[in-house]
Amino acid sequence: MSSNEISHENLPHEQGAHGTAVAESPFADPGLPPHKPRIQDIDERAAKRSERTVALLFTISMLATIGFIASFVIFPVDKIVYVWPIGHVSATNLSLGLTLGVALFCIGAGAVHWARTLMSDTEFADDRHAIEATPEVKAKVMADFADGARESAIGRRPLIRNTMLGAMAMVPLSGIVLLRELGPLPEKKLFHTSWSRGKQLINMNTNEPLRPEDVVVGSLTFAKPEGLEEDDENFNNKIAKDALMIVRIAPQDIKDRRELEWSHQGIVAFSKICTHVGCPISLYEQQTHHVLCPCHQSTFDLSDGARVIFGPAGHPLPQLRIGVNDEGYLEALGDFAEPVGPAFWERG
């Protein structure tokens, strides 16, 4: 053997030296620590206490879910409360967050306490297996599932089982309630406006009540109902249905009989909201008594019941019946006879 040739037998047994395989693993299998029984495993009274604790957590979850649903009924949307140290918060948001949080937390805490105190905690080692399941593996899985169900004591602990099922069944009710907030229920809001008998017609420009002499032949005036102010929270929603268009036509030029009966000395009040897509109408031609919607050119004849004579609008503008009160101001004699707004019947 030459000086340049060295036997592998003389190399030190260093890990990874020139790819030399290590004969023995340097990491010994530590094995599993000896199993120590819990107090619940040897004392049935302790197990009963844990069972009652888990059932209590599940019951609290059910009560919190009921509280979540009740919050929608109890607290109005605009209710503000002071909570230290947070400050002023929405009562609805606070109650919904707290009740839903408690409901979910108690289910999780109950499941954890159940697993740590009552379910089997015996550890065992199992060999890795191929991804594809063989019939034997499937059978073993089903057997393990049955063993797990038996060791969880769910069959012997009906109080836990029933309260858990109740809590898990009730929590989805919170989601059903949340579906209610996808949008407001229409109820009868589309059928009615703020107009009612005795409400004065208020000039939108001067914010003063209108007298018959304020409306001259050929003029166009816009009005709102008495009591509706621009700084009101729901002003935009209300004016979208309440806005009026006031014109004065010589009584002999009014062709529609009902329109004449619902007017006062030729003063007629029609909804300003186009029946096509809801644009505000503002273009008036006094010679023909036609009004034009600037959005899609729907044209209405105000001397003939505001019927549609051109454009995509589907029906005439609703008319408001008006009169004069004891003080000489124009007032409404009721609400619109038909719903105000665009494509009402198509919207349902």
From TrEMBL:
Needed co-factor(s): [2Fe-2S] cluster
Biased composition regions of type Basic and acidic residues, renumbered to the chain: 1-16
Gene3D superfamilies with a match to the protein in the record: Rieske [2Fe-2S] iron-sulphur domain
Membrane spanning residue stretches: 54-75, 95-115, 159-179
Pfam families (alphabetical): QcrA_N, Rieske
InterPro entries, per the entry: QcrA_N (IPR045603), Rieske_2Fe-2S (IPR017941), Rieske_2Fe-2S_sf (IPR036922), Rieske_Fe-S_prot (IPR014349), Rieske_Fe-S_prot_C (IPR005805)
Cellular component per GO, a single term: plasma membrane
Membrane topology: Multi-pass membrane protein
Keyword terms: 2Fe-2S, Cell membrane, Disulfide bond, Electron transport, Iron, Iron-sulfur, Membrane, Metal-binding, Oxidoreductase, Respiratory chain, Transmembrane, Transmembrane helix, Transport
Residue runs in coiled coils: none
Domain Rieske: 236-331
Protein's UniProt keywords contain Membrane: yes
Molecular-function GO terms, alphabetical: 2 iron, 2 sulfur cluster binding; metal ion binding; monooxygenase activity; oxidoreductase activity, acting on paired donors, with incorporation or reduction of molecular oxygen
Disordered: region residues: 1-38
PANTHER family: CYTOCHROME B-C1 COMPLEX SUBUNIT RIESKE, MITOCHONDRIAL
Self-association state and partner proteins as the record states: The cytochrome bc1 complex is composed of a cytochrome b (QcrB), the Rieske iron-sulfur protein (QcrA) and a diheme cytochrome c (QcrC) subunit.
Protein family membership: Belongs to the Rieske iron-sulfur protein family.
Name of protein: Cytochrome bc1 complex Rieske iron-sulfur subunit
Organism listed in the record: Streptomyces solincola
